[in-house]
């Protein structure tokens, strides 16, 4: 709401509330007060207000049976005073991002208007504070309760529209408010009649049993809600366990908790060596990016910075958020939740959730996060183990490059990308070390392995994020080049060939006794082919690249780049 809206509400309160009390005192009937009974009413009212009933996402309080009974027995003034007390109690027992003064003014105006209009209708229908026939009492009471509930909802709807608050769930709230009000009406009438007949003993006959049933029902619903939380956590846990890549676990975790915890932004921050903080994953609004725009943190965690390594913490307003020393949030952030992510009882990361509303997070959300971070840590460990296993199965154990198995699958993927228009061309390069067998025979197989590793490192220096580099087998290596025209692939092949020719490679011969470091020189023969002009599929592309290597490179005298062309392989150098 705006500052102007706040001022308007405060002025309306000054104009309406005193005037309504004056009208009630002077123009509506009132019974003489029994202060013992009023004290009992107050005790029952306060006890009722401390217990809420949750129906789906709607939380309701059941104080109206006390308020109605009070009205039927003592009149509108007592009811209005008690409703102002209800407003104050709910103001402090129900957290809200709306300023307290504004909430009090709105609810005070709303309750006093509803009370006065409903009472006027009750008396207009023949209602009174004296003896009435039971049928007339129920009829007048029913209409009073109906007007009370619907008018209350209508005023709140108008206020929400005026301050541009969300009204999407208003229909459900109105329905439950009306149903609960009508169901409470018989309790109000019965309690009123018993108070008139037996006095304070009515508290034992109606008040105490009602409070016991309310408490049992509330605890039962909380238990059901906790079961729902556990069930939702289990479902999300299974979804996390199904993810085989660490990145997928991160993104699934962030996405799924959005459905059970109301956050605007989520961050997973790694804790390395017990002090270094590194961003692992984030989601800000609907967008994922590599760099956070709404949250920053120091490179190192320090003691007393407010980020607890043991328990989940809630920071529900800007003052409490300021206790997170060194951690900076977007100015719109009003609530923060921080949760340690543990593995083997050791904190290895943090989940940080933010909301643009004060008091956005509750204790139930803490329980949910504690469960989910446990599932998350297990899923990450499993995914990392899987990735390490897969990495070993697709990597050459000697050079660390991808192996032939991975090369085939990757080539198939790139061909699909070509046919779907994601890339325009696809080139491959095969490089073969010339006379490599002579190196093994002269210096030993270990020296040959050292040379392969050195050559692999040289090739990596020419690799980009788009280029796939693999060991084809023996002393042969392959580069897959998406979006490379043939001339570009030839230029890269020639650059590598020249660099190898002009380089000196140091090895330690394992066949000699002194094992002194030795400098050797070597050359490579290279083959190049490009899709679509040289092949229609991956196997044909690799086969024709191999043909270019042997015909245009090896057979042409080695230390050359062979380029595949239809019916011939052209030697370019």
What keyword list fits this structure?
alpha+beta, 5-stranded antiparallel sheet, 573 residues, 6-stranded mixed sheet
Q: Please tally the β strands and state the result.
A: 17
Biggest pleated-sheet summary: 6 strands, mixed
How confident is the prediction overall: mean pLDDT? 85
Round the Cα radius of gyration to an integer and report it. 39 Å
- Category by helix and strand content: alpha+beta
Shape field: elongated
Low-confidence blocks of residues: 568-573
> How is the quaternary structure best described?
single chain
Helical coverage, percent range: 55-70%
Distance between the termini: 75 Å
The number of helical segments is 16
Q: β content, as a range?
A: 15-25%
| Major β-sheet strand ordering | 11-12-10-15-16-17
Task: Show the helix and strand layout.
Layout: H1 3-27, H2 35-49, E1 53-55, E2 58-60, H3 64-74, H4 76-93, H5 100-124, H6 134-162, H7 170-198, H8 201-242, H9 246-257, E3 265-272, E4 276-284, E5 295-296, E6 313-315, H10 318-321, E7 328-329, E8 335-343, E9 346-355, H11 363-394, H12 404-419, E10 426-433, H13 436-443, H14 445-460, E11 468-473, E12 476-482, H15 486-502, E13 505-507, E14 518-520, E15 524-531, H16 538-554, E16 561-565, E17 568-571
Parallel strand pairs: 15-16
Antiparallel strand pairs: 1-2, 3-4, 3-9, 5-7, 6-8, 8-9, 10-12, 10-15, 11-12, 13-14, 16-17
Helix pairs in contact: 1-5, 2-4, 2-8, 3-4, 3-7, 4-5, 5-6, 6-7, 7-8, 8-9, 8-11, 9-11, 13-14
């Amino acid at each position: 709401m705006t500052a102007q809206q706040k001022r308007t509400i405060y002025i309306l309160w000054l104009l309406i509330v005193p005037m309504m009390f004056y009208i009630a005192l002077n123009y509506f009937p009132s019974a003489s007060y029994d202060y013992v009974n009023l004290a009992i009413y107050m005790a029952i009212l306060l006890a009722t207000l401390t217990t809420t009933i949750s129906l789906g996402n709607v939380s309701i309080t059941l104080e109206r049976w006390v308020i109605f009974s009070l009205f039927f027995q003592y009149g509108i003034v007592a009811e209005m005073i008690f409703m102002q007390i209800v407003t104050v109690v709910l103001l402090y027992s129900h957290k809200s991002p709306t300023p307290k003064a504004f909430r009090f003014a709105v609810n005070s105006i709303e309750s006093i208007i509803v009370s006065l209009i409903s009472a006027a209708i009750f008396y207009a229908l023949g209602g009174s504070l004296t003896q009435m026939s039971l049928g007339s009492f129920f009829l007048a009471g029913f209409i009073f309760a109906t007007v009370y509930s619907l008018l209350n909802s209508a005023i709140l709807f108008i206020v929400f529209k005026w301050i541009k608050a969300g009204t999407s769930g208003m229909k459900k709230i109105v329905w439950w408010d009306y149903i609960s009000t009508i169901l409470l009406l018989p309790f109000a009438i019965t309690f009123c009649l018993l108070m008139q007949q037996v006095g304070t003993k009515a508290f034992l006959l109606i008040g105490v049993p009602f409070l016991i049933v309310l408490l049992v029902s509330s605890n039962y619903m909380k238990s059901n809600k906790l079961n729902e939380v556990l069930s939702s956590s289990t479902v999300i846990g299974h979804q996390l366990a199904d993810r085989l890549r660490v990145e997928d676990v991160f993104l699934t975790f962030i996405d799924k908790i959005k459905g059970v915890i109301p956050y605007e932004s989520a961050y997973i921050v790694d804790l390395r060596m017990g002090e270094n903080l590194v961003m692992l994953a984030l989601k800000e609004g609907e967008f994922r990016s590599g760099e956070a725009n709404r949250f920053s943190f120091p490179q190192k965690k320090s003691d007393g910075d407010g980020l607890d390594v043991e328990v989940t913490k809630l920071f529900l307003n800007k003052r409490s958020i300021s206790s997170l020393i060194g951690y900076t949030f977007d100015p719109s952030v009003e609530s923060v939740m921080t949760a340690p992510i543990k593995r083997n009882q050791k904190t290895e990361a943090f989940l940080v959730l933010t909301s643009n509303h004060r008091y956005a997070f509750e204790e139930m959300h803490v329980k949910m996060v504690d469960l989910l971070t446990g599932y998350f840590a297990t899923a990450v460990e499993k995914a990392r183990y899987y990735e390490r296993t897969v990495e070993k199965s697709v990597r050459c154990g000697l050079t660390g490059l991808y192996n032939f198995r991975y090369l085939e699958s990757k080539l198939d993927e790139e061909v699909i990308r070509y046919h779907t228009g994601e890339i325009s061309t696809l080139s491959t390069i095969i490089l073969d070390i010339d006379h490599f067998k002579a190196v093994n025979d002269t210096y030993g197989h270990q020296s040959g392995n050292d040379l392969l590793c050195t050559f692999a490192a040289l090739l990596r220096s020419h690799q980009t994020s788009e280029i796939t580099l693999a060991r084809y087998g023996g002393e042969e290596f392959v580069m897959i080049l998406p979006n490379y025209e043939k001339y570009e692939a030839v230029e890269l092949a020639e650059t590598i060939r020249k660099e190898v020719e002009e380089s000196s490679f140091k090895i330690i011969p394992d066949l000699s006794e002194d094992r002194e470091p030795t400098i050797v020189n070597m050359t490579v023969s290279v083959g190049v082919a490009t899709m679509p002009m040289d092949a229609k599929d991956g196997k044909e592309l690799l086969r024709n690249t191999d043909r270019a290597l042997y015909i245009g490179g090896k057979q042409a005298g080695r230390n050359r780049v062979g380029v595949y062309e239809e019916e011939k392989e052209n030697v370019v150098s």
